[in-house]
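1st attempt posting a full record on here, be nice pls
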Amino acid sequence: AWYGRGDISATFASTYKIVTPQPVPYTVDYLFEGKAHTYLPDAIGQLLDGRLLIAEAGLEQDKRRERNRAKAEAARKVAEQQGGVYWIGTEATLSKTRHANLVFLHARRQTFASWSQLSEALQIVWPWGEAACVQEVAERLGERWPQAEREAAVWKRCAESAARGHLLVDLASVHLSRLTPLICLDSSTPPILPDPLPSSLSEGVTVLEEVVLEESENDKPVNLLSTFDDSTLEAEVRERFLRNLRAVEAVLSGTTTVDAAREYQIARSTLSRLVQRARTHGVLACVPHGTYHRERDLHPAFQEVIRRLYQLPTKLSLTAIVEHADLVRAAKRVQQDTGRAPALPSYKQVRSYVRVLKQEPQILRAREQVKGPLRDRQSPHSFVLSIPAPAQLAQVDEHSMELYVITPDGIHVTRRIHAAVLICVKTAAILGAVLALDSLKEEDYMRLVRMALEPKDRLVLQTGCQHSWFCTGKPAIIFHDRGKIFTSERARQVLVDRLGIITEQAPPYCPSAKGTVEALFRWMTQRFERRLPNTSHGIHDAEAAAKAGTMTLEELERYFYRAIVDDYQQSWDGLRRQTRAVLWEEAVREFGVPQYLGAPDDLKLLLMKAVNRKTLSHYYQVHDRSRLSFQGRWYTCPGLLSRLSGREFELYYDRRDVSVVYLFVEGSYVGEAYCPQFLGQRVSEWEATAMRQHDREKAKAAASATQQVRSDIQEEIEATKKQRRQATREREKARQLDRQREEIHPSSVLSQLESLRPPPPTSLRLPKATPDPDGEYPVQILPIRPFKTENDL
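the predicted structure (as tokens):
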């Protein structure tokens, strides 16, 4: 037996690795309004007996439309031809409680390390066919294993039994909890299968679009229950209303029109008309002039033009509408059709008609340019209060805040930060929150999941929170509103295959489903963002705001988490009528929350995976047998990188701290590498980028400042070379002149000139030291006074 989507393409199936025995998309041909069409069913599959299954799901009112009926009839015939069945599920046949319980069990079906031992112990303490609740069975297991593992084992056994049809409990009427009596049947017992869905819709519900049979006027029920508040009427008008109402009620109760008219002093024709109008309009017909209506003197063609002009984005004034050329064109068209030229509408007529248009919600939204199609409430039930268990549905969304962030060195990083939260819809408690200094990526949302799975005791101590943050657990469904936030294959493998988390995208307009996270962002803007010193709210000078705030990312995160734990979690929730921290604790005590029991190293897979930008098809490698290059910086780990020399490996890192990276070889975690440049300090990716840019600008400024010095040195060197060459030329010229003396003067004159030449300079070395002869210099010996001792006194 198997089942799968029937409306997916072959590309979608290959991308997400969906294997189906039937080719996809599964097409069904049908006829509608005499034309051939192709229909793709929602689901196809095979039952236990080998028969084909074609299934469709949707709202019952939508499935009753003529086109959908034609699709269902064609699919039903295809299933009958192949010996299969056709099922159709609507809100009347599909139980929301059963769906919630199945999601509840699916989130607790993941295996963990001690499951094999606990499975053997469960067979002893909880025999097949015995009724017991989860809390009781967990106590039977003793204290050998932690409480979280014991409850996880009991829930996993129940989930496996429910998947095989051996869980004896009514999933359609009971919400599972820790105190719900459960019975797991033996595997040899025949499976308990749910009731099959119908192949056609029942005839008890009608569709608004279908034509309703007309009833005679006398057989129509009188809707006198649509009451009217007569306290808004004046005294005289109220008396007439009450008289008319008593007369109409007397006639409808069986009194003749003549007797009722005589008793209440109303003309018989007037009373007959009141009774007829009361059958149509109810009590409002008894109000004097309450249902009076008169057609406008304004031609319908002009009304249509005025309506269209009033809805234009340019927001024309009344004078512009009165003087618009479209009204003249409309008058010409009416004259061509009727042969009479209607008078153009006056300013008073346009103004009175615009007043009527302002009362229509659609016209008002188009005029005011309200974003999104506003719709009325579809159900009286609360979506938030309908969620049975904590962490059953968690919402995730992004919110931007105008805050200025600098590095610890005072370097400006950004003027806008982005915050993402993962919030439990049932209790409005926050499971995880992250900050980013640029637009959020898939890895930021995966960090949210990691934060929800990990205990937060260390984070509470680091940030100095006054209260504890117990909101830890694995969400069953993640409800997001930003398109597909988990798009990569690695994210799908980690979240879906390893963690068993379901992701759903919110519909385009669903305030009841998305109101929880929107309320949180309103609190974040009003009570956190605008109360920080580095906010730009009301400040025009960005630099002044940055200097006044002087807040780093680490400080901002500390205040952010303190605001969540000590302010938001402890605040009163008006809808749920309790503080959010207490709501979480009470819900966990009643239903429990699935915890992450896998290997701690697996959570590192939720971090960002680095991409080798130099060669995209290769992994990272070790350089010089001692270091690796990542984002322009060197990382070292002497004991590890030397062993990885010559091998390729993968890098995972957290954007909030790039001073350390995690190394994986063939999918296995082997260790970390550290950046000596950061000196063990926490530096985020955004701060590192800002520091690199700042250093590049400083280096450029320093290079431009020393450029003049280098130019001066080069010019001085060139000038010295010129002076040296000139001196050499002058010496050579003098030497040539000296050689010409021999030709000019006789030898006696030359010898005299040679004697007049100054002697050459002596050597710089000192002559050899020789002592002076004795007695050459008289020496006078000075007398020395002897030192007196104590005996001489």
